[in-house]
Amino acid sequence: MNYLEHLEKHCGTFVSGFDIPYLLEDDVQIIELEEESSKITSISTLGLHWHTLQFENGSPAHQELLFRFNQQHVKEEFAELMWQLTDYALGTHKAFELGELYELPEDVLEQYSFSSVYVTAPFYSDESFITYANGEQSVLVVWFVPIYPSEELFIEEHGTERFDELLYETDRELFDLNRKELV
């Protein structure tokens, strides 16, 4: 099974790709998948795992990036944000670490009042989705969850473990950009 088949098994059918020639030079694409039964859209990288990134502790990492949401009208904004995060990874060779925050650019998702995206594992999915093994390497799927300023403050005050507990208590609410703040 290749990575696209792995994605389709967990995120629905491949719908289209976004035309970003700059990324294609690095053999990386940004694609859209759709779960028809739940109306959840996924924006994912495809090919990033062929580039070796590095965690802060020096160990190598192979990652693919993911957004999941149920508001169709913002998929272009998520594709733009995915491009920026992918460009950051390719430019710095830094792996995304669980619990990290990345500030949202001003023009992305501004109608929802989110301040940043939080790095986590795709825990709403079957556990087999979190890591993809292709024989040569293990690929970690990194899920970015948009969060509110109050949630960002909670992380600063109480740490990522406590925030992760709040996330794990949700039931698919994180796909809804109109969700209520967790704190």
Write the layout of secondary structure elements.
Elements: H1 3-11, E1 13-18, H2 21-24, E2 29-35, E3 40-46, E4 53-54, E5 60-61, E6 63-69, H3 75-92, E7 101-103, E8 116-120, E9 131-133, E10 138-147, H4 149-158, H5 160-168
Helix pairs in contact: 4-5
Question: How would you describe this protein?
Answer:
The structure is a single chain. The protein has 183 residues and is α+β, with helices and mostly antiparallel strands. It has a domain at 3-98 and 119-145. It has 5 helices and 10 strands, in the order αβαβββββαββββαα. Strands 1, 2, 3, 6, 7, 8, 9 and 10 form an 8-stranded mixed beta sheet that branches. A two-stranded antiparallel ribbon has the order 4-5. α4 (149-158) packs across α5. The chain is globular and about 40 Å long.
Quick rundown:
The protein is of the alpha+beta class and 183 residues long. It has a domain at 3-98 and 119-145. It has helices at 3-11, 21-24, 75-92, 149-158, 160-168; strands at 13-18, 29-35, 40-46, 53-54, 60-61, 63-69, 101-103, 116-120, 131-133, 138-147.
Unreliable runs: none
Q: What is the number of helical segments per DSSP (H or I, 4+ residues)?
A: 5
Net shape: globular
* Chain-averaged pLDDT: 95
The biggest sheet amounts to: 8 strands, mixed
Termini separation comes to 40 Å
Helix content: 25-40%
The helix-strand sequence is HEHEEEEEHEEEEHH
Structural class, from helix and strand content? alpha+beta
Subunit organisation of the chains: single chain
Radius of gyration: 16 Å
The number of E-state strands comes to: 10
- Assess the beta-strand content as a share of residues: 25-35%
